[in-house]
Amino acid sequence: xxxxxxxxDETGLVEFLRIELELQGYHLYVATTGAAGLRIFExxxxxxxxxxxxxxxxxxxxxxxxxxxxxxxxxxxxxxRGAVEDRVQGLDSGxxxxxxxxxxxxxxxxxxRALTRRKEKFLASExxxxxxxxxxVIDPLRRKVYKDGQLVELTARELDLxxxxxxxxxxxxxxxxxxxxVWGFETPxxxxxxxxxxxxxxxxxxxxxxxxxTVRGLGYMLRSDTP
Length: 227
Fold this sequence. Notes:
This protein has helices at residues 11-23, 34-43, 60-68, 84-92, 105-124, 156-167, 175-183, 193-205, and strands spanning 3-7, 27-31, 48-52, 75-79, 97-100, 131-133, 136-139, 144-147, 150-152, 212-215, 219-222. By secondary structure, it is an alpha/beta fold. It folds into two domains: 3-124, Response regulator (Rossmann fold), CATH 3.40.50.2300; 131-222, Orthogonal Bundle (Arc Repressor Mutant, subunit A). The strands form three sheets. The chain has a five-stranded parallel β-sheet, sandwiched between helices. Strands 6-7-8-9 form a four-stranded antiparallel β-sheet, with no helix packed on it. Helix 1 (11-23) links the parallel strand 1 and strand 2 (27-31). Helix 2 (34-43) packs parallel to helix 3, helix 6 (156-167) packs across helix 7 and helix 6 (156-167) packs across helix 8. The longest helix is centred in the middle third of the chain and has 20 residues, at 105-124. 28% of the residues are buried. One of its GO terms (biological process) is regulation of DNA-templated transcription. Residues 128-224 bind DNA. Keywords: DNA-binding, Phosphoprotein, Transcription, Transcription regulation, Two-component regulatory system. Residues 3-116 form the Response regulatory domain. GO terms for molecular function: phosphorelay response regulator activity; transcription cis-regulatory region binding.
């Protein structure tokens, strides 16, 4: 049974979603504040998070950022704020999807299924042996990265990005392709989240930009000739 964490302070919506999602076979954890949501996230393994943006204590954007520091669990924002800049902020904070209230329950369930399927497919495709290029070693099974023998703390999303670049090493990958394959966006999104995360990975592993090349106007490439 897949487990969903719902972080939402609107009582009526909580009860509606509890009934509908349990009918679909999901186990639901509920938190009505950001702090409670983060506590449940730390204590339980969940398959997906439904997150309200406007919470009584911590802004949903900050909750999402804290989750992204430790996990790449799919996150869907549920919010009445539907302006373009609001959606971009939500996606830039690390969310996988953004659903505007009021919404049809059928659409929410379809998006939940799509995100969990993509996550399962991505995990199934990960390599099982250690990967090495230059002075970097990746252990995909333990999801650890080492540089010069020292452990490097990458977030789950940063590691997924690095693994995908390695799988396609030597090829130029567009930002839209990275958004689709690493973040799960099926349609183009106006966001610089890819550039931001490339910067994070470079800062930790490749500050001199020796391995991850920017191909102007096209995207990024992990060099295939890296010793």
